[in-house]
Amino acid sequence: MEEEQLREIRKNLLKMREEVLLEAERAYAASQSLGKDGVPDIGDMSSNSYSQEVLMNLSETQRVRVRDIDAALDRMDKGVYDLCARCEEEIPSRRMEVRPFSRYCVDCKSEVEKFGE
Ligand SMILES: [Zn+2]
């Protein structure tokens, strides 16, 4: 895969990740302000425990999404992003563009779906 294309996909993944976390943050702020006297007391918390709390507010779908994004970014760092996790063949970049979390080539994907990983 072209360096340029890889950079583009990474940018998109980071943006997606940010959007999911932002969504969770909003949900968290909303739940906080509903709780007590209508004022979220986010200022009292250390930023660390704040992001922990935010992460706990992620729905199952959002959690899976963040995990998939992190896994994809991790594969990028290791330089194996577009290599199939099963047969280690290069996955066509067209497929990675459409499905940026793909871990398998089309052939392996259908095998995995039939017989498990
Ligand atoms: Zn494969």
What would you say this structure looks like, in words?
The protein is mainly α and 117 residues long. The chain has 2 domains: 1-80; 82-117, no CATH class. It is built from 5 helices and no strands. It has helices at residues 3-35, 47-56, 60-77, 93-98, 106-115. The longest helix has 33 residues, at 3-35. The radius of gyration is 18 Å and the shape is elongated. The chain starts with a helix and ends with a helix. 12% of the residues are buried. The mean pLDDT is 85.
Order of helices and strands: HHHHH
- Total strands: 0
Report the total helices: 5
Give the helix level as a range of percent: 55-70%
The description of the largest β-sheet is: none
How many structural domains in the coordinates? 2
List the ions, cofactors and other small molecules found in this model: zinc ion
Classify the beta-strand content into a percent band: under 5%
Low-confidence runs? none
User: Cα distance, first to last residue?
Assistant: 25 Å
Mean pLDDT: 85
Give the overall shape, derived from the CA principal axes. Answer: elongated
Q: Report the radius of gyration as a whole number of Å.
A: 18 Å
Counting helices, strands and paired strands, the structural category is mainly alpha
